[in-house]
Amino acid sequence: MYANCMFNYTLKYYDTYSNPSIIQTVPETIRHNVLKSMIALSKFKGDYLEFHDKIKQYGIKWVSQDSFTSFLKIFNNNHDSLMQWYKEASNVMKPHEKLWLKYLALSGLRRTEAEISFNKILKLGKQGRSDYINENGIVEHFRFPKDFLRGTKNCYITIVPASLIEEIANSQHLCYSTLRKRMLHNGLNQRFKELRSFYSSFMARNGLMSEEIDLLQGRVPKTVFARHYLKENIGEFKNRVLEGNNKLESLLS
Questions:
Q1: What is the pLDDT, as a whole number, of residue 70?
Q2: Which run of H or E residues covers position 157?
């Protein structure tokens, strides 16, 4: 969870609190979150203004990804080999794990979110509860804020085929650590994160607007269009998402 991640950064990099210059030695990939954890600590201790002045004196700035780095990530993606990896991974998985992998691919969720959601659908289904899946067959993550609304990493709704939801509800508990060990034993990389970006690209090519993809992936659009003009007809929106799902599922099989 996000809070645990921030807490661990606070413990591991506590020296940066008294000496912010050390932040420059922290790996760039996590420097942003380390700085955020220290700022959270300063607010908890009541000396945020002092800490803020201190990092300004050291010339510490937020790490942001420049446009050229973003371009390289897009240009150098390995999506061409991702489908082959998907099939190889499926071959070493048990039936319920394959089902989870399919859910991950068709939902565009983060790996942790897909694990929590998969097990929640299973658990609530066995209890006969219907407060997670609405009458339109849409998975409503926002009803469980402790699990799915985590500050900068949120997910609100997921639209996948009803048949997939039914299969999950009659499946088995998913243990990611067990699955991970089996994949490592078979020499397979953990490429689950790439399925999320592949989902975005695929859905964009198959009729969804970027604002709609953002909504499905837990990002509330900040554009004027999204805030004032994006008024979804939920039934029509669901149908378009499912059309994309069907095409993506064909690609996965």
A1: 46
A2: strand 157-158
